[in-house]
Design goal:
Layout (H helix, E strand, L loop, with lengths): L3 E4 L5 H12 L3 E6 L9 E4 L5 H15 L4 E4 L14 H29 L2 E6 L3 H4 L5 H21 L4 E8 L5 H4 L3 H9 L9 H12 L10 E4 L8
Parallel strand pairs: 1-2, 1-4, 2-3, 4-5, 5-6, 6-7
């Protein structure tokens, strides 16, 4: 019957590609969203990443329908891009609260069932900005870099319970978010991407499928770049 899967921010972009791929493999997939519900075949549950009670309610709905969450993909995130000298404290706090503390809240809720089952897969969707930084994204890069420390510490704590924790770090991926960047910024990113092109959301989904599947059973605490070489050696 497949596994019970939760993908946060799974109603669009990378999250939707991941959720759709796992559902196609036979998993029972719930996705969190704030506004637009996901397409048919996926269970949509409303959740605010800044609110632990909202996250708990989303898990309860998913678990009622699908059973305890066995695979968690943390993808939900926001940006508040602006140069550091113009960035106010709220810009920084909002991004860290959703992207990093939201990951903490979600993982903390998910591991309850995983620890009891002594099995689980946790995959955090970061970004290659953790490695190379980006002007105007001090808040975003800091939050995405924080995911690495979180995953590696959790790998130590949860490994004895047969729970793996890994990070997928996309580079320039063709999504609505990436299409909104300036041509100058896009050209620069392509110039430092050895493959010389943007990736597809399916590329990220394939990496998640590997880490969530039996083939990835001996991989934990790892960072898997899906970037066409962007940030090579980072």
């Amino acid at each position: 019957m497949g596994r019970s899967v939760m993908v946060t921010g799974g109603n669009r972009g990378i999250g939707l590609a991941v959720a759709t791929a796992l559902a196609a493999d036979g998993d029972r997939v719930a996705v969190t969203h704030r506004d637009t519900a996901p397409p048919d075949g996926l269970l949509g549950v409303h959740a605010e990443m800044t609110d632990a009670e909202s996250i708990d309610a989303a898990f309860e709905k998913a678990e009622t329908a699908h059973g305890p969450v066995e695979v968690l993909v943390v993808n939900a995130g926001i940006t508040r891009d602006t140069l550091f000298l113009r960035m106010d404290e709220q810009d920084f706090t909002d991004v860290v609260d959703v992207n990093l503390q939201g990951a903490f809240r979600t993982v903390r809720r998910a591991v309850r069932g995983m620890v009891r089952a002594r099995w689980g897969r946790i995959i955090l969707i970061s970004s290659m900005t953790y490695a190379y930084g980006a002007p105007g994204q001090v808040n975003y890069a800091a939050a995405k870099a924080g995911m690495l420390g979180m995953a590696r510490s959790l790998a130590w704590e949860l490994g004895p319970r047969n729970i793996t924790v890994n990070v997928v770090a996309p580079g320039l991926i063709d999504t609505a978010m990436s299409r909104a960047i300036t041509d100058r910024r896009r050209d620069h990113l392509l110039s430092i991407t050895p493959l010389g092109r943007a990736g597809d959301t399916a590329d990220v989904a394939a990496a998640v499928r590997y880490l969530a599947g039996e083939s990835g059973r001996f991989v934990t605490g790892a960072v898997l770049p899906v970037s066409g070489g962007l940030g090579l050696g980072g």
